[in-house]
Amino acid sequence: MKNTVGDFKNLLSPLEYDILKQLWPDKKLKVRQLFEKLKGRRKVALSSIAVLCDRLHQKGILSRRVETARGGARYIYFPKQSRENFESSVIAKAVDNLISEYGSTAVAYFEKRFKRK
Amino acid sequence: MILELTIISWIIAFTLFVAWRRNSDPYLVYAHLVFLISPVLLWAKSATCQSFLRRMLFGMCSMQTAELIMYLIPLAIIISFVTGYFVMPVVYKIRMNAKYFRNFKNVPVYLIDSAKPLAFAIRNKIFISVGMYELLTKKEIESVLLHELCHVKSKSSWQRFADSFIKIWSPFSYFSLIDSESKINKDEMRADAYAIKMQKTSRYINSARNKLEIYSKL
Predict the structure, then answer these.
(1) Which of A93, B60, B92, B184 is 20–30 Å from B194 (CA)?
(2) What is the pTM of this model?
(3) How do strand A29-30 and strand A72-79 relate by DSSP bridges?
(4) DSSP 8-state code for residue B14
(5) Of the candidates A48, A51, A75, which has its C-beta nearest B130's C-beta?
């Protein structure tokens, strides 16, 4: 099985999640802008932000486009989905993974859990 | 007659190889290979050579095919030269998704759509990635471009291509220690020195190197 529960836990690192949280309200930011926003909250280097943004892009969570100006070039990163859509897709993935891993046991547990609520 | 011509041709080829080892002129590599391979064209017509090749292939080919195989040797060298020198840079440009970006001291700079910090020079073009621009400051980028400009001016890619070409095709290279790594290191040091000379400080090239080293460890 490709996506296990263990894989899902490693979907995002704390810093990756912080980057996403910054991008959701502002929508479009450069690596340097993200660095300026995050450096006050935690000890982080510009290169780490650049690497993590690239990884998020490779995972298909962020989109990016090249902006060229005054002889330089920068990536502008923006999320592919809104926060709500992203979170619901993560939950759907987690639930699907649990059902495919544990089958009827997982379904029975969900039934029991929702009945109790 | 064929034997005399072959010996003379190989003596010239050997002299050119020795001359290349002394001054690393890429043109000597190609002249060396021409004199080394040209006797093959003379042997192709000879019946002795054709029957020798047939014996080597356990008689699996006719005399005409043996002659054709002999012609294929210089043809393979020509094809590998054209592919390596003219076609591969174009293929590389397409694969790296590089687009014309700007001129830097009359040398075209191509922007690579990659977050990894990359910069290199092929023939008369400089390639630099978006990741490099993101990681470095303006002055550091200038030092990297000056470094690559030195490679363009000193025709480094032409020399490195000639080095790899002689290693593949010349039997002399198997008996001679060609230390490409120290050659490349010298070349890189010369390019760094050029950037330092132009910027009048080693500060930017050193900080760029440090940043790239940190990035490579991530």
Answers:
(1) B92
(2) 0.78
(3) antiparallel
(4) H
(5) A75
